[in-house]
């Protein structure tokens, strides 16, 4: 799958975002159909918020749960070194 141009966030930071969202969803968090958790994660780490959210939307994620279901799986499949990050 072709991905839109990734903003200035490293693959490790992206993997950390996915891990954060997955861990939070396992606590019973219900998605509010926004990027609330993603925005908070990016802000706390001083990462580019709006460019990253735009990129995630273009990659098929219109909310936090779609980041996990629509983006994470594609990235794991497309990058063979994913597990070593």
Task: Report on the architecture of this protein.
The chain is mainly alpha-helical and 85 residues long. It has a domain of 52 residues. Helix content is 58%, strand content 0%. The chain contains four helices and no strands. The longest helix is centred in the first third of the chain and has 15 residues. It starts with 10 loop residues before the first helix and ends in a 7-residue tail after the last helix. The model has no long low-confidence stretch (mean pLDDT 86).
Oligomer: single chain
Please tell me what the overall shape is: globular
- Average pLDDT score: 86
User: What share of residues are in beta strands?
Assistant: under 5%
N-to-C series of helices and strands: HHHH
Figure out the total of helices: 4
Termini separation comes to 21 Å
Uncertain stretches: none
Secondary-structure content class: mainly alpha
Biggest sheet layout: none
Number of strands: 0
Global Rg: 12 Å
Assign a percent range to the helix content: 55-70%
Write the layout of secondary structure elements.
Layout lengths: L10 H15 L10 H9 L4 H10 L5 H15 L7
Helix pairs in contact: 1-4, 2-3
Features of the shown structure:
single chain; mainly alpha; 4 helices; 85 residues
Please sum up the structure shown:
The chain has helices at residues 11-25, 36-44, 49-58, 64-78. With 85 residues, the protein is an all-alpha fold. α1 crosses α4 (64-78) and α2 packs antiparallel against α3 (49-58).
């Amino acid at each position: 799958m072709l991905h839109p141009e990734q903003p200035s966030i490293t693959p490790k930071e992206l993997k950390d975002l996915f891990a954060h969202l997955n861990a939070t969803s396992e606590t019973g968090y219900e998605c509010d159909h926004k990027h609330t958790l993603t925005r908070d994660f990016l802000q706390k780490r001083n990462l580019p918020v709006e460019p990253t959210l735009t990129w995630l939307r273009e990659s098929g994620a219109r909310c936090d749960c779609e980041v996990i279901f629509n983006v994470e799986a594609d990235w794991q499949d497309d990058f063979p070194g994913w597990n070593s990050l």
